[in-house]
Amino acid sequence: MSDDYENLRVTDEDGVRRVVIDSTSKMNALNRTMIDELTDLFAGLETDRPRCLVITGSDGLFCAGGDVLDIGNANAATPSEGFRKGAAVLHDAMLHLHQAEVPVVTGVNGPAVGAGFSLALVGDYTVASEGAYLQYGYPRIGLPGDGGSTYYLPRTVTRREAKRLVLLNEKVGAEEAAERGLVTEAVPEDAFEDRLDEVVGEIAEGPTVALGRTMRLLDESSANDLPTQLAAETQAMADAASTDDHIEGITAFAEKRDPEFTGE
Transmembrane stretches, by residue range (predicted)? Predict the structure, then answer.
């Protein structure tokens, strides 16, 4: 993982890796350089795993979509080639994040549109500021969606609701997003940072390996039949049983005290 990103501010503290989107493009838009940086960042999670990853935006902005002029035209003979290359690299990043099995919290503190919508949905737990909103966004520029949006959306809300959000391209405020299941909770703007830190801190104190594997099991459950899912659960239980956190959990249970997990 590089410490010198142009579009991301990354800090590590108390096992929490905090990623602040601070794009060189307007409205914190996702540009080609940021896609490369996200790929590098997420790939690094597989070997240098924090206890929790939190993604939020700078200056009251989350990510208002992709910088389509940059992604569609940079070093490409046609827009089709440009978007194919951009989407392929972004999808490598999203696969790295999925495979890392790190609990992810997204703090939506402003517009989350298009690629920003996709990044918001990737959170296992999503806190939204009351001034924020989510919008699928892609139909406005005649595109179907990327960044895992069509994977995560129908797993976050019903298939019928997912199609409504796409077809009508609705702008959904934070409170309504919480009511409709798009985000976990909506909080007042002046309480956003404190609540985000509270959620992240609690997750970071948990059994990281077990939590990360459970998030992956839940994401993949709708694509599996029962025998496949049970086999995945069996392997996950066996893997987690060899962790220090499992030993600590059992010891604490026997000693009738709260466990002190280390994430290992």
Answer: none
Among 193, 195, 189, 106, smallest CA distance to 152 is for 106
Q: Give the tens place of pLDDT for each residue, 8-51.
A: 999 999 999 999 999 999 999 999 999 999 999 999 998 899 99
Q: For 152, how many CA atoms within 13 A lie in the half-sphere containing its CB?
A: 26
154 burial (CB, 10 Å; 0-12 / 13-18 / 19+) is middle
CATH number of the domain bearing residue 241: 1.10.12
Q: Is residue 161 situated within a structural domain?
A: yes
Residue 263 backbone zone (phi > 0: left; psi -120 to 50: alpha; other: beta): left
Distance in angstroms (rounded) separating the CA atoms of residues 207 and 99: 17
- Domain containing 142 — which CATH number? 3.90.226.10
